């Protein structure tokens, strides 16, 4: 039994002393490069869904409607702003006219009082 243990130990020591490249299994593993089969190399072809092209007539009509809507909205807000400005100016003019009428009314009433006072003196 002791001889069998020593025999195994001597085999292990000889295996450790041999260069690794002399072993046929290691030579095969080291010389073999990375390879894969043709099936593994193929990448699956993913097809994109085919989109229906927008025709020139539909695209032109859509563009026209979109542009018209955009221009109409811009015009609407421009006219709305102009209306507000003109309305404010008109309101200021009405207040100025009201103040002028009030001044004329007071002036006429003072003149009437003076005329009445002169007629009473006569």
Termini separation = 168 Å
The helicity comes to over 70%
Strand content: under 5%
What's the overall geometry?
Answer: rod-shaped
Give the helix tally: 4
List how many beta strands DSSP finds: 0
Supply Rg.
Answer: 54 Å
Query: What structural class do helix, strand and pairing data support?
Result: mainly alpha
Biggest sheet statistics: none
Series of H and E elements: HHHH
Any low-confidence stretches, pLDDT <50, length ≥5? none
Mean pLDDT score: 79
Element layout with pairings:
Layout lengths: L1 H16 L6 H8 L6 H4 L14 H66 L1
Brief digest:
The chain has 122 residues and is mostly helical. It is built from 4 helices and no strands.
Highlighted features:
mainly alpha; single chain; 122 residues; rod-shaped; 0% strand
Structural features, described:
With 122 residues, the chain is mainly alpha-helical. It is 77% helix and 0% strand.
């Amino acid at each position: 039994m002791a001889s069998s243990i020593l025999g195994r130990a001597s085999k292990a020591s000889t295996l450790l002393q041999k260069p690794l490249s002399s072993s046929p299994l290691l030579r095969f593993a080291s010389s073999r490069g990375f390879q894969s089969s043709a099936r593994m190399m193929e990448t699956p072809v993913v097809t994109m869904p085919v989109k229906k092209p927008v025709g020139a007539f539909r695209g032109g009509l859509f563009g026209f409607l979109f542009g018209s809507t955009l221009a109409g909205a811009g015009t609407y807000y421009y006219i709305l702003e102009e209306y507000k400005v003109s309305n404010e100016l008109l309101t200021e003019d009405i207040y100025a006219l009201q103040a002028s009428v009030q001044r004329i009314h007071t002036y006429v009433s003072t003149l009437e009082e003076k005329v009445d006072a002169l007629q009473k003196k006569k």
